[in-house]
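Design job #97: recover the sequence.
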């Protein structure tokens, strides 16, 4: 037994191969370059505009910061030390201003004197001496001023138990040696209470000490003396001289935010571009024509990398031009690589995002979300070494920086922090001045930041920071991780047509082009058995005899034309699987080489779905099709090499010209470069687009776009071409050019075409299949269909009104089944049933024998439109659709048929209402009326060619 491809009745003559991946890549890069040039404003904005704007902003901020740093104050004013103020307490927790111990007469005297002297300085009432406090657990019910307590331990433990309740604590220690009083005291001071002020250990503390000293001196001298001891201290700042080295802290702190933003402009643009191409099905279109998905991603990566490189170079140059310390003291290559790697990693991250969403709008929102998270990281996490390096503090879990390094902006923040720490330096806590860093050379990437430049945390630990090159490696890892995720998810997440590979596809040898001998050469009978045994079937009682014959041919193991469609079924389910729409029910038919099959059907009949399955856009629910020995279900990648598709909606790049479209698809299909120019001439001339070959597709009219789409589907001379409503929107002249192009092109090929034009189906279709509700209702050539479903022939005879009886007698004698449809002013119209067809030739010949009696005559066959309407009516016994009832009116004669001209009007009424209304209208206007109960109607668009060439009698 031989194989499918070997046994095909019509084997591929010369199977065209797709272009190699390298050629496809080259042609896509050329397309991307063209678009970058065409969208030059956007390109410039991403590469130069964004870095310029962000760097300029940073420069302005840096200058503003320098202006603040450069302020000088040669004579700051002096001010006296203030007094000690009452503690305020918090709304729910009162405070204790001062606890003191021991509670002796001397210490109480010191404190009372302190309160009295202090009140003069604060202007408040004097602090009161409260009763002793010994309850360690209790919190006072009101603010207390000066509380004697039992011991220093009490103060300590109370502060531990009730933090932030007590403002001051004093432990006195007084000894008299040789008549000399030695008074010592220790002050406990709650610095956190004033941590947000500028006076942590400043004036308040000194003022307190000064107040205590005054009190002690006063008491020890003579508390009753009129003149008390007074220690007046005036405090004055040193003159402020601008530092010689201005710190670049603004660039160090805000730089990551601004540089990250430069890259994010490209990031958002990439998300938008990829999703727009997805949304407009441009990528689908290219893939249907054989583009390998990996080539698409690679081309996008390479062309966007160019933008990233340009943006990184511009950023580094501007950094130097603006004299930022990071750029002045940092190695140019280190900075360039850092920016470039960030950009590259963010691009691949953008690719990853585009696999998760379908709409550009949603993608942009997702991109903005990522942008904001990145900004938060750069602005808060990496704004200073103290916070930025905390991830590498010994006490931080080591998994934290590893997990976070999956975010490209985390790695960038670390890189920039390293560079800016070494180039900008660090604030010397002691002197309050900036110590410039040693600079960042290329070799610095291998060593961690020196410990003197690293922060020391409150627990006296320093972070164990890895070298900068590790962050570069992590950026490369990010690219690899998101690249692989993109590659995987792009294939397993179903697109809007539901096409997706199984989750385990990487483990399928066929995915890698490895096919076992058995897979390469499936016995066609085996395949047929398998499809028949695995496919769902419907019980169909009322199938037309020709459709049944076609089904038998498709299911026959002895008949193998170029393509077979077997038990094809498509069910669309809603997201939750609650609603199902059966778009195709058990379709079986065959396709022969050199013959065009025209698919007709009402809207929603399932024509496009059939085309989409056969062209690999959407998977069949069950059943399969075999085209030139290849299975649509399993070998679509091979079929694509011999397939051309003109989808229902134009898939064109608005900013590419017609010529560039042909070059692009010729490149993807592997047409040799030398043939491209001739291809443009030949094909565009055929559809009359040559004059506009260099105009962009967005300037084309609807009909011009359709013509270009038809041409694209024929590039690479595919063996099978699917044309979904190819002439929609075309004027009659151009439609005929396209018809003649298709007519020539179909030689030696399979062409499947869907259309709503009966004329088109009549002219082009070697076979015509009519679908309704997902089922084939009729199939055959035009004449067969007309004979089978038409009402026969219609003849009109013009005679003298006075002699019309003679004519009637002649007609009834020669064609007994004829029915008179109209008789007015000597114009007789007869309908001849199909059964009388054999009598018609003799009848027509005879008419010439009645020269004086018959002045003129004409004959017409049932039109395809009448056949179509009949089949659709039969398929809809309950009414085709409430809003699609056919009502005919207008009595103008139709050229060539001597019949009144009818126009088709749709009414939004029910069947019976419409019929009644139509009858009423006709009665009123004396017009012919056809309702959906009438078997046929005349066509308004039957071509004269059909009437003559398809009519065997004329
Ligand atoms: N993606 C989809 N999801 C759900 N239902 C769909 C989908 N695509 C098509 N259908 C449904 O399947 C049926 C067949 O649609 P199809 O597009 O094949 O019809 P058609 O014959 O090509 O119609 P038209 O002449 O209007 O193009 C319709 O009822 C349609 O609503």
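Job complete. Output follows.
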């Amino acid at each position: 037994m031989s194989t499918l491809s070997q046994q095909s009745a019509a084997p591929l003559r010369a199977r065209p191969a797709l272009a190699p991946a390298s050629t496809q890549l080259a042609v896509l890069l050329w397309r991307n370059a063209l678009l970058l040039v065409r969208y030059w404003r956007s390109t410039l904005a991403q590469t130069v505009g964004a870095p310029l704007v962000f760097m300029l902003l940073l420069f302005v901020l840096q200058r503003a910061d320098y202006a603040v740093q450069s302020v000088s104050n040669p004579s700051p004013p002096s001010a006296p030390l203030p007094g000690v103020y009452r503690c305020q307490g918090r709304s729910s927790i009162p405070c204790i201003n001062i606890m003191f111990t021991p509670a002796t007469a001397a210490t109480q005297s010191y404190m009372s004197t302190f309160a009295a002297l202090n009140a003069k300085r604060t202007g408040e009432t004097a602090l009161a001496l409260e009763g002793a406090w010994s309850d360690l657990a209790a919190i006072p019910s009101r603010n207390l001023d000066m509380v004697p307590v039992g011991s220093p331990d009490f103060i300590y433990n109370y502060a531990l138990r009730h933090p932030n309740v007590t403002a001051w604590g004093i432990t006195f220690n007084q000894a008299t040696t040789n008549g000399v009083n030695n008074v010592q005291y220790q002050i406990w001071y709650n610095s956190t209470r004033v941590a947000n002020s500028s006076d942590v250990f400043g004036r308040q503390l000194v003022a307190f000490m000064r107040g205590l000293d005054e009190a002690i001196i006063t008491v020890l001298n003579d508390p009753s003396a009129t003149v008390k001891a007074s220690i007046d201290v005036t405090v004055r700042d040193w003159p402020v001289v601008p530092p010689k080295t201005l710190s670049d802290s603004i660039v160090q702190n805000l730089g990551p935010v601004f540089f990250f933003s430069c890259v994010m402009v490209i990031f958002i643009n990439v998300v938008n571009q990829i999703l727009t191409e997805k949304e407009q099905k441009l990528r689908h279109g290219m893939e249907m024509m054989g583009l390998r998905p990996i080539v698409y991603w690679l081309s996008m990566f390479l062309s966007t990398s160019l933008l990233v490189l340009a943006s990184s170079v511009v950023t580094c140059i501007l950094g130097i031009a603006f004299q930022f310390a990071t750029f002045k003291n940092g190695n140019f290559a280190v900075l360039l690589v850092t920016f470039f790697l960030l950009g590259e990693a963010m691009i691949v991250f953008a690719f990853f995002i585009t696999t998760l969403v379908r709409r550009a709008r949603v993608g942009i929102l997702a991109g903005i979300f990522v942008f904001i998270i990145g900004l938060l990281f750069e602005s808060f996490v990496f704004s200073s070494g103290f916070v930025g390096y905390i991830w590498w503090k010994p006490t931080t879990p080591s998994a934290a920086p590893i997990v976070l390094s999956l975010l490209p902006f985390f790695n960038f923040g670390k890189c920039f922090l390293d560079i800016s720490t070494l180039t900008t330096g660090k604030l010397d806590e002691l002197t309050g001045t900036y110590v410039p860093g040693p600079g960042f050379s290329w070799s610095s990437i291998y060593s961690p930041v020196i410990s003197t430049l690293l922060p020391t945390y409150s627990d006296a630990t320093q972070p164990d920071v890895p070298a900068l090159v590790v962050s570069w490696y992590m950026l490369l890892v990010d690219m690899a991780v998101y690249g692989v995720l993109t590659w995987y998810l792009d294939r397993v997440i179903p697109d809007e047509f539901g096409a997706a590979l199984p989750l385990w596809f990487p483990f399928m040898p066929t995915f890698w082009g490895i096919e076992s001998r058995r897979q390469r050469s499936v016995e066609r009978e085996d395949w047929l058995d398998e499809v028949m045994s695995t496919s769902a079937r419907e019980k169909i009682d009322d199938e037309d005899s020709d459709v049944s014959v076609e089904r038998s041919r498709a299911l026959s193991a002895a008949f193998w034309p170029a393509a077979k469609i077997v038990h094809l079924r498509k069910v669309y389910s809603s997201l939750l699987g609650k609603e199902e729409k059966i778009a195709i029910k058990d379709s079986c038919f065959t396709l022969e080489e050199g013959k065009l099959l025209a698919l007709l059907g009402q809207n929603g009949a399932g024509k496009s779905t059939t085309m989409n399955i056969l062209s690999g856009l959407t998977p069949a629910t069950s059943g399969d099709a075999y085209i030139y020995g290849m299975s649509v279900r399993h070998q679509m990648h091979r079929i694509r090499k011999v397939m051309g598709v003109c989808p229902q909606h134009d898939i064109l790049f608005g900013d590419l010209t017609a010529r560039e479209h042909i070059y692009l698809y010729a490149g993807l299909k592997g047409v040799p470069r030398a043939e491209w120019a001739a291809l443009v001439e030949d094909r565009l001339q055929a559809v009359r687009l040559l004059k506009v070959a260099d105009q962009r597709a967005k300037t084309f009219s609807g009909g011009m776009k359709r013509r270009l789409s038809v041409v694209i589907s024929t590039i690479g001379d595919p063996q099978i071409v699917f044309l979904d409503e190819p002439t929609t929107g075309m004027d009659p002249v151009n439609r005929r050019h396209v018809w003649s192009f298709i007519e020539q092109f179909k030689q030696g090929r399979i062409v499947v075409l869907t259309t709503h034009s009966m004329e088109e189906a009549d002219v082009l279709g070697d076979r015509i299949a009519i679908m309704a509700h997902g089922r084939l209702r009729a199939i055959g050539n035009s004449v067969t269909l007309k004979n089978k479903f038409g009402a026969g022939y219609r003849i009109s005879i013009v005679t003298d009104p006075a002699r019309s009886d003679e004519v009637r007698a002649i007609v009834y004698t020669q064609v007994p089944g004829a029915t008179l449809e109209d008789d007015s002013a000597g114009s007789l119209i007869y309908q001849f049933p199909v059964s009388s067809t054999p009598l018609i030739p003799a009848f027509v010949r005879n008419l010439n024998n009645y020269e004086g009696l018959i002045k003129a005559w004409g004959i017409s066959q049932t039109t395809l439109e009448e056949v179509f309407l009949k089949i659709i009516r039969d398929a809809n016994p309950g009414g085709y659709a409430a809003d699609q009832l056919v009502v005919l009116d207008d009595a103008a004669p139709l050229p060539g048929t001597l019949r009144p001209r009818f126009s088709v009007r749709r009414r939004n009424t029910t069947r019976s209402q419409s019929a009644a209304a139509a009858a009423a209208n006709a009665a009123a206007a004396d017009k012919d009326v056809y309702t959906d109960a009438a078997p046929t109607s005349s066509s308004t668009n039957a071509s004269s060619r059909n009437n003559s060439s398809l009519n065997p009698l004329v």
